[in-house]
Amino acid sequence: MDGRGEHARTRVAVLPAAHPAVRRITGLDVSSRVELVPVRPGVVNSQTPTEASSAVEFDPAAVASGEIDREGDSLSSVDLAHVHFGYDYLEPDSVDMVVRHLAGADVPMVLTVHDIVYPTDEDELPHRDHTGTLVEAAAAVITLTEVAAHELWVRWGVEPLVIPHPRLLSEEEISAAVRGSKHLRSTDSAVVGVLLERMGENIEGPELLDQLASVASGRPGAELRILVEAQAWRDACGDDGVSGSNHLVAEFAAEGDWTSVRLVRYESLDLGSLLAEVAALDVCVLPYRFATHSTWLELCRDLGVAPVFPAVGCLWDQWFDRCDPAEHSGEVYDPRDPAAVATAVRASLDTPLAVPPRVEGADPSAVVAEYSKVYSQVAGFRP
Q1: Are residues 327 and 250 part of one domain?
Q2: pTM score
């Protein structure tokens, strides 16, 4: 115990705090002994008013000088830092600076490894190197699945604590999304969604939509929804993108037997408007080229939507953790087989099943409670 008193709180800088999963955690106040301080990387420009007033601003370019907080705060004012690595809000190239600055401020680090393979970079070697830098500098390492923990042990000789991915949505958010979804679909039609997200990085694009054209055959009223991150669409089609949208929709509507094809754009830092759209789906295709874990899988679980995803990374283990795959929704396809994704979507539509239950301890408050135990150990405190 330090000199701050018997009831002092352990102050934890959490970075990067822009991702919805991390924002869910940092928005909780579940312990009188822990204060979570969200740290936002300077490359993220979008802030809500509450985030802007409470978050430490982390600018990789200012790490060396320690000028990381708009209001004069610094990492030296916290007891430890919790780094969530794998989300693309923390650039891999800034990792070395993060480690140096934390070490210079004498701030120990807890690391959660979400992605061993970075989800927006086909050249995985630099990301693995940066992951190794963080793993070796961390006082404690956490990951989301047992298979990911094993890979971290094999590669870097650490024994991570496995804490499941927290649920993303509250019961109120789920209820609102389900109510909103009823206005977005016809009662008897099959609705298939495809996540293009950032197109051309880690996500299969138009060629995958071509492969899905046959899914609508024999399914009267079948609808296709294309979910794409708004900034990626603006980059591809300009600020307006209306003509590009119309062209894309018309092209894929003509190639398949879809009754309708609709483009749904969303902002990466605000998924609120997307929730009803996802809840309206029967199947959501997550066409990753490479991945370790996926927040989108957890969004599907929250909203009761059947995912179709490739056999890459730890996705199978994340989705079917401790349950029988034969009894639950979720189809896995071989990304090397051009016909596999359409086969998987058809199987999911033909045999609808309930999503797997969440594993015990996946509630955000339970996740933070587990984190709190780690924080106490790393910061030198005892419960």
Answers
A1: yes
A2: 0.84
